[in-house]
Amino acid sequence: MNRLDDIEYMKVSLHKLGEAKLMINPHINGAIENDFPDEIIHTFDLETKGILDLYYNWHLNDSETDDRFRLFGTVPIFDDIVYSCIFDFFIGTAIYVSYDMEGRLAIHHEIAEMAMNDVKSFVKKYGLADLIWCYLVIVGFENHQAISYYGTMTEKDFIAGKNHRSWVSHSLEKELFIELALGFLEIIEVEEKRCVQLTQKGRNRMNTEYRMLVDSKYIDHRMKMTYISQFDQLSDWEHISNVMFPNDIQFRKEFLDYIDISEGMDILELGCGSGSLTFDAKLAEKVGKNGWLTATDPSAGMLSRAEDKLNQLDHKNVTFEAASAERIPFNDQEFDGVLGAGFFHFTDNDQALKEMIRVARPEGFVGLAGPLEFDLNQPFFREWFEDIFLLSEQKTSQSKLQIYLHRIEDLTQLFREYGLKHISHQTVNLSWVFPDPQTVVQFMIHGVGFFQQELEFMPMKARNELIQRLLEKGEKICARYSLNERTIQLPSYYIKGVV
Ligand SMILES: C[S@@+](CC[C@H](N)C(=O)[O-])C[C@H]1O[C@@H](n2cnc3c(N)ncnc32)[C@H](O)[C@@H]1O
User: Fold this and answer.
1) How far apart, in Å, are the Cα atoms of 266 and each of 47, 253, 334, 339?
2) Does the beta carbon of 227 lie inside 6 Å of ligand 1?
């Protein structure tokens, strides 16, 4: 057995990869090698060769042990795949680090350095082989998904990565060879063209890869990055949000009334975004001069917009800090209350709630506001997003369009499970307007990543085509349905509990 077939071994390796936050192909952000300055690409190239010299029998010298055999057993492997693995991890991790640290895609020397250190630490700790096995699972899944999506793909397109991995600068010829040797793909003739398709073994493999990537949280981790980076790219978030949710601020004000914040409290706000709750709904005013508000968000882009607002207003009692709800950088029992609006559905709920409770003082409160699951089968909505509904129905593993919004029963249950007292909630309807195709597609696809579960592993070209179709379809929908018919009453909630 080679390690690639050893599922338990692979799961452990992928788990370690997830913990190290190493990433490849975050193509969803449209980031490609061209976004990298030449000198950084040059450094990545040199460092990749350095790792190879250090850990891998790169030049096949005359030593008695054959490192290739030790690392890869009977799986055919090529030097340039090993090279691409390290190089791709440098690129992908740098994109991740850039968003994580600065909330935007700006690859400069420090970011590149951090990414290289992350990859090198992984190799030092676990060995180069582990990195390569993980690489083969991830790119294997990417290849299999794309072929499964299209049914067949010409050999030429596959090798060029034309439809599914166009950001990769090298040829996928060697990957194809490995796939054929392992029996995951086969060559068939379609209209006198050589095409590749999945074998049954390849299909099973794809399902296993998916499960491994889900179990190791690699997919979660990548989606989380997508959610955060997408918010960063939305420079006109305020405008989009105000047009689509005309009662947005009112909803947030009522949430604050519901929570009953009193002057002088020391409050932590999570997922503050660009400050709708913080300033527009007047949370900062409510805590007053004698209180303190610490507002946090993992997206540096959103935070910098909130900070701009702070500079225009004159609040001396607000500070900002970059943080995700799952890892709150404050001491236990530090706050009178912890709250936030419209962010909880982006989090690992258990981890986030646990953290919220940890930093609230005994008898302090935890409060959330956000959207609830709603009936997606509204005529205009179903018609507009039909392609995505179909995509979801085609999936064998699930028959229902996956969205990540909560049901109020589940939220209350979660609050109960975590031992909160005096739990209460209120549901209200929030008008959700679908004004014009550009705004809607921006919001749904680029902003809140509403269909991210469906789109995350769609081949890049198909994804871009789908977005284009949604824009065109939107024109027809907006002509056929009145604005009134394009307005949904989005069920939303306020919930609070006492620690
Ligand atoms: C829809 S915006 C809401 C912003 C603001 N609270 C409001 O009331 O309008 C969602 C925010 O959640 C943030 N977010 C995404 N993932 C998060 C996480 N894991 N923890 C905390 N916030 C997160 C995003 O960066 C974004 O700023």
Assistant:
1) 48, 18, 8, 11
2) yes
| pLDDT for the residue 367 | 98
Ligand 1 neighbourhood includes 310 CB (under 6 angstroms): no
Residues 119 and 150 reside in one and the same domain = yes
138 and 9 fall within a common domain: yes
Domain of residue 269 covers: 237-498
Question: Which of the 8 DSSP states describes residue 102?
Answer: H
Contact 437, 470 (CB under 8 A): yes
Q: Is 260 left (phi over 0), alpha (psi -120 to 50) or beta?
A: left
pLDDT in tens, 31-40: 555 578 889 9
Does 326 contact ligand 1 (Cβ within 6 A)? yes
Q: pLDDT tens digits for 144-172?
A: 989 998 999 999 999 998 888 877 777 89
351 and 225 together in one domain: no
pLDDT band at residue 71 using 50, 70 and 90 as cut-offs = low
Burial class (CB in 10 A: 0-12, 13-18, 19+), 59: exposed
* CB of 282 closer than 8 Å to CB of 474: no
Mean residue pLDDT across the chain = 86
Question: What is the rounded CA–CA span in Å between residue 35 and residue 231?
Answer: 19
Find all residues with CB under 8 Å of 318, minimum gap 6, and list them. 278, 284, 292, 293, 294, 295, 310
Q: What is the pLDDT of residues 249-280, one digit of tens each?
A: 999 999 999 998 999 999 999 999 989 999 99
Q: For strands 292-297 and 266-269, give the pairing.
A: parallel
Asked whether residue 176 falls in the same domain as residue 283, the answer is: no
Tell whether the model's pLDDT for residue 418 goes beyond 90.
Answer: yes
Number of domains in the chain: 2
User: Is the shortest distance between the CB of 277 and ligand 1 below 6 Å?
Assistant: yes
Do 365 and 474 fall into the same domain?
A: yes
Q: Is the pTM of this model over 0.90?
A: no
Contact by Cβ (8 Å): 111, 94: yes
Indicate if 491 and 346 belong to the same structural domain: yes
What is the rounded distance in angstroms from the CA atom of residue 193 to the CA atom of residue 147?
A: 16
How confident is the model at residue 67, as a pLDDT?
59
Atom of ligand 1 nearest to the CA of 269: 6
191 and 279 housed in the same domain: no
Q: Pick the residue whose CA is nearest to atom 3 on ligand 1.
A: 342
Kindly state if the Cβ of 437 falls inside 6 Å of ligand 1: no
pLDDT over 70, % of the chain? 88
